């Protein structure tokens, strides 16, 4: 490995020794926890969201659930935990402690208020107690109190006003955390920018229902007979997180640095978030499942990858997928391909045949004597569903066919019914977009 | 642990998370080799898929509807040469390093599902709408039970005649209890009794034409499945010699009131078991567990030719059994009071393959010797009871006194009489007996519908 790798990143003028931060959540609830996370290798923390003690915060019990996929535990988590239930004084003492004992580890204070003065009060207090940066929580998906959490994230003018108020009050950088429970995140992000935000973080949890009890019919977590639509997180939400990060990263008008999160467990997830446009990365569910130790593999895996690729700095990765990310109308549809089977390695399970017959082009016939598939090339749709189910990695690959190659049309079951057709071809000219 | 306690403890089965995890490994083959490999058509591909999609009750239904002794088969089948033999997951290891190099544990999943049904009280089978024609089943072993359950589901009143005091045949009297416990058997039998099958125990169908006479006593059809309960022996004169037992005697004693007596005859003694099959392995392992001083497995061929399953052989070795291979027993040496003193042996060498395809043992001249022992157990095969020919005098038999049937229907040469299990096949597997019972039940249904 030729190149030495520097994982440190500059984020709004704050230096992090690597891109991996604890996100504002159960994993960043106390200085004792955060200190151990720093020792494990996390470069910074977005501390569990602070509030002004004006309203009592009581966490529901039980507060979390999970979605298993077959034998795999917790492909997603479900939580109804609220913002920090600790007194503000205690949280500020924790910030002081961390600042004093770990000055090289930036502290991002996450805050949530309900009106301007409260936001300003919290922002100033955090700055006064050593926060290096603020994250404005506009996105908690299950706060019980009207006018808080994701409801602000969906009320764009409020979001802009609160951001502006905070910005006027403090000199440290301010980041706005966005809810994914919305179609287009660039819109609220632009309002945050108008309010003066220095960065955007996303995604908070996705509103969902993880499970409904088969015996009691109560959505989980079952809080004494009551369930709620609440925050889903974990590996299952990674595609959603990448969508919002990439969408904001390629929005020129926005142009703010991004802190990405949503389903990051491995260095490969981290790499993808960087390539989609995120500078810092935040993790909760991965830690809820495996503990702080996973940062060792995030750091080592990403470093080695970069060294092998000859990439010295994380900045060189940020947004590098964006030139390859287009709308679907940019596809070159003249180029077509099919699958290739390396039958020497086939173990004869026949799953390819099943999915091709029932979900694709009926291009994979089955030789029941040899127990091997037989590809009918000109029926292959190149959907790759067979590759998805094949238990042998790399057995089924994609290959491009020469120019002029044609796929067979799907056969009509009974063309003798032709005389019974009643349809006239549609001939009216019109625009190629939806109009009222 | 006391032998009596030890013998009651059956090996633990899988629990739900383990069974689900195992089902997760299944590749859900298109034309699953496992299902083709089951003689009784228990349809493992189907019940594993159902478990995989959390249709657990459906998975139980698949097993029980196709194999009423699904629990017994799951535990007792030599799965590695049946359903698991061609499992695609076995081959996955060659191409996928993280994939396991073992087949899906189909037998274990099957046993789990059946036990799970008992645990949750799920009964997937129903009696059929009542029919008038009655059917008699002779013998309550696997073949008889399978036939009875199949017919009861079609609505036939079925009476099962059993000569011994309790039903189950080989499942009760021919398997050691730590391999297959009485509780497990009771549950399996209850599933059958729930279908309305009537059991008449201590009711042998013996005596001149007794089996054929059932047709005159109001039964529309008779299924003969008495099994093989007379033992082959190396020395017919030794039958009454104290210390010499057949495997049938020995294993039965461990399952009925004679356990303590038999345990006492084994503990601290030198025991020689003759034979190389699964039954011989049960005998040596149980003798070791009963505290025999030394247990010898005496087999005339070598390790590779043993009919016992590989895992059974390993278990016997792990139990500390001496494998005395390439030694042919020729007779017994009696001491005072005709009590057994030793086993006469002659060393053998392997010669050319015989009809079974295995290399045959050839005695080495001048190599005769005597193994001193207190107990000998002969596990070299069973045959029909002496005189059984007279119980069904018109039924055509083979030279070995086995009943001749059409293998597709189980029909014997006498109209209305069907047969299956060991009395047709000679010593065979439980799952094959189950298959015979099903085949015959369907043929009986056709016959009675004519």
Structural description of this entry:
The complex is a heterodimer of chains A (436) and B (450). Chain A has 436 residues and is of the alpha/beta class. Chain A has 2 domains: 9-324, TIM Barrel (Alpha-Beta Barrel); 332-409, 2-Layer Sandwich (Alpha-Beta Plaits), CATH 3.30.70.20. Chain A contains 12 helices and 18 strands. Chain A has an 8-stranded parallel β-barrel, surrounded by 8 helices. A 4-stranded antiparallel beta sheet of chain A has the order 5-6-12-11, with no helix packed on it. In chain A, strands 1-2 form a two-stranded antiparallel sheet. Chain A is globular. Chain B folds into 3 domains: 8-120, Alpha-helical ferredoxin (Fumarate Reductase Iron-sulfur Protein, Chain B, domain 2, Orthogonal Bundle), CATH 1.10.1060.10; 134-228 and 384-449, 3-Layer(bba) Sandwich (FAD/NAD(P)-binding domain); 230-382, FAD/NAD(P)-binding domain. Helices cover 36% and strands 18% of the residues of chain B. Chain B has 18 helices and 15 strands. Chain B has helices at residues 3-6, 16-25, 33-36, 44-52, 56-66, 70-76, 88-95, 106-120, 142-153, 170-173, 182-193, 210-213, 247-255, 259-266, 278-289, 310-318, 422-425, 430-449; strands at residues 134-138, 158-161, 198-200, 219-224, 230-231, 244-246, 270-274, 294-298, 322-324, 327-334, 340-353, 359-372, 375-378, 382-383, 417-419. In chain B, a hairpin with a 5-residue loop joins β10 and β11. The mean pLDDT of chain B is 94.
Q: Strand order within the widest sheet of chain A?
A: 3-4-7-8-9-10-13-14
Indicate the multimeric state. heterodimer
Apparent shape of chain A: globular
Count structural domains of chain A.
2
State the CATH topology of the largest domain in chain A: TIM Barrel
Classified in CATH, the superfamily of the largest domain in chain A is: Aldolase class I
Radius of gyration of chain B: 23 Å
CATH homolog superfamily of the largest domain in chain B: FAD/NAD(P)-binding domain
CATH fold category name of the largest domain in chain B: FAD/NAD(P)-binding domain
- Count of all domains of chain B: 3
Strand order of the largest sheet of chain B: 3-2-1-4-15
Rg of Cα set of chain A: 26 Å
> What profile does the largest beta sheet of chain A have?
8 strands, parallel, barrel
Please, how many helices of chain A? Answer: 12
Structural class computed from helices and strand pairing of chain B: alpha/beta
Percentage of residues in DSSP E strands of chain A: 15-25%
The CATH architecture of the largest domain in chain A comes to: Alpha-Beta Barrel
How many angstroms does the end-to-end distance of chain B come to? 58 Å
